[in-house]
Amino acid sequence: MQLEQFRELPKPGFNFDNCKRNAGLIKNGFQAPTAVKTGTTIAGIIFKDGVILGADTRATEGPIVADKNCKKIHYLAKNMYCCGAGTAADTAAITDLICSQLELHRLNTGRQVQVVVANTLLKQMLFRYQGHISAALVLGGVDRTGSYIYSIHPHGSTDKLPYTTMGSGTLAAMAVFEARWKPDMSEEEGKKLVRDAIAAGVFNDLGSGSNVDLCVIRKDSADYLRGYEYISKKGERQLDYSFKIGSTAVLETKIEQFDINEEIRFVPMDTA
């Protein structure tokens, strides 16, 4: 067998292919692609009787707050939900797709779907696209084998943990979990802990904000607490700052006339 039939291994060291590509784009008059920065704080813990998921509700578009009340905790099945960080369209699309697959699995087997099935379907889907689907997920659920929390990264790697966080506010939220989480927490203790973790992400990360959403999943029920707390309240003015006309003295008035030349050009549409 000839050696040319084998695929050539990549050379060690930094790969400059993308740098050359960007330089070529700039040379031809195109704008170089930039990295996409997303902001979110999502978290999940295991407590005595199940799992608790939490998320903020701010969706950003660059420096602009695009949605103040974005839904980031997605329904998968009656016994499991999934928090999504990253591109909002990607997280919504992939959770809807897996939700339908889980329902078909339940109808075919006639049994409650285990949480590990959802984890496997999500990680296989993300790995197939090699990270191009911008969806970092926190999966939580309860089945007949126990309570589970999974963190699922955009490239398809997963971790099974007693508590986890994802998103740009993950460091602040994880600091709260590592300091205060303990096994066999009560439901109220767990809700307070997840609320404080999301609040830490909101107050320490510009990409997170607005409300705190919680989802409590037990063995026989699930409660989606939409708008659990509004922690990032807008400041209110203490006084009325409306001044009457004439209260401010006008020292000088100067009026200039400008000639406006308007030119209309038709630019052909690029169909390449």
UniProtKB/TrEMBL annotation:
Q: Which reaction does it catalyse?
A: Cleavage of peptide bonds with very broad specificity
Q: Is this entry keyworded Nucleus?
A: yes
Q: Which GO terms describe its biological process?
A: proteolysis involved in protein catabolic process
Q: Where in the cell is it found?
A: Cytoplasm; Nucleus
| Residue positions of the active site | 40
Q: What superkingdom does the record give? A: Eukaryota
The terms describing its cellular component in GO are: cytoplasm; nucleus; proteasome core complex
Q: What are the Proteasome beta subunit C-terminal domain coordinates in residue numbering? A: 232-263
Q: What is its main location?
A: cytoplasm
Look up the coiled coil feature and give its residue ranges. Answer: none
Asked if Cell cycle is a keyword of the record, the answer is: no
Instruction: Could you list this entry's UniProt keywords, alphabetically sorted.
Output: Cytoplasm, Hydrolase, Nucleus, Protease, Proteasome, Threonine protease
Functional summary from the UniProt entry: Component of the proteasome, a multicatalytic proteinase complex which is characterized by its ability to cleave peptides with Arg, Phe, Tyr, Leu, and Glu adjacent to the leaving group at neutral or slightly basic pH. The proteasome has an ATP-dependent proteolytic activity. Non-catalytic component of the proteasome, a multicatalytic proteinase complex which is characterized by its ability to cleave peptides with Arg, Phe, Tyr, Leu, and Glu adjacent to the leaving group at neutral or slightly basic pH. The proteasome has an ATP-dependent proteolytic activity.
Q: What is annotated about its quaternary structure and interactions?
A: The 26S proteasome consists of a 20S proteasome core and two 19S regulatory subunits. The 20S proteasome core is composed of 28 subunits that are arranged in four stacked rings, resulting in a barrel-shaped structure. The two end rings are each formed by seven alpha subunits, and the two central rings are each formed by seven beta subunits. The catalytic chamber with the active sites is on the inside of the barrel.
Q: What is this protein called?
A: Proteasome subunit beta
What is the organism field in this record? Answer: Glossina palpalis gambiensis
